[in-house]
Design goal:
Layout lengths: L2 H12 L4 H12 L6 H15 L5 H12 L5 H44 L3 H26 L6 H19 L5 H14 L4
Amino acid sequence: MSVVSQHADSVLMTSKPTLTRLATVFLRIGNTTFGGGDPTMAALQRELVQRRSWLTAEDFALAYALARITPGTNVVAFCVAVGARILGTGGAIAGALGESLPAAMLAVLIAWGYESLRANPFAMAMITGTVAAVAGMMWASVWLLVRPQIRGSRKTIRAALIFGASFVAAWKFGITPIPVIGAAALAGFLWKEE
């Protein structure tokens, strides 16, 4: 890597975002990632936290957790929270509109065409393949969120137990997100590092 490209990368990572730059990130990622909120949030984490440093990993994780317990579309709530954290009200509006408006219009068009594709075995095979890809992207998103919490053996055990208990509570017992996240927050508080 040349000195010029290293300098350009460091300027990109430390520069303050403008509303236009932030809206462009939401528009690009929100409308080019597929598979729902988790892959979109993973792509936003790479862009906003790791690449551009516009947001800390802690702020990202907090916005992610809070968005998961809000009613409605979690990814929109997440983009609003992250946009607000970065640039206030303007950032919140950019997050909501940039992430959702073009994708919502595309979803309407796809829904109109779905009836004709439902009988096509090739189209259904492609849809089945995308389901597997989405599951993989969701696990990648989980790993990006859990990885910073795994530091030292006690912290790893704590993260693994809370993760496992939350998974079982949601999957096996159908417990809704609010009590699961509340219990996890309490467990994290009671089992804090010294």
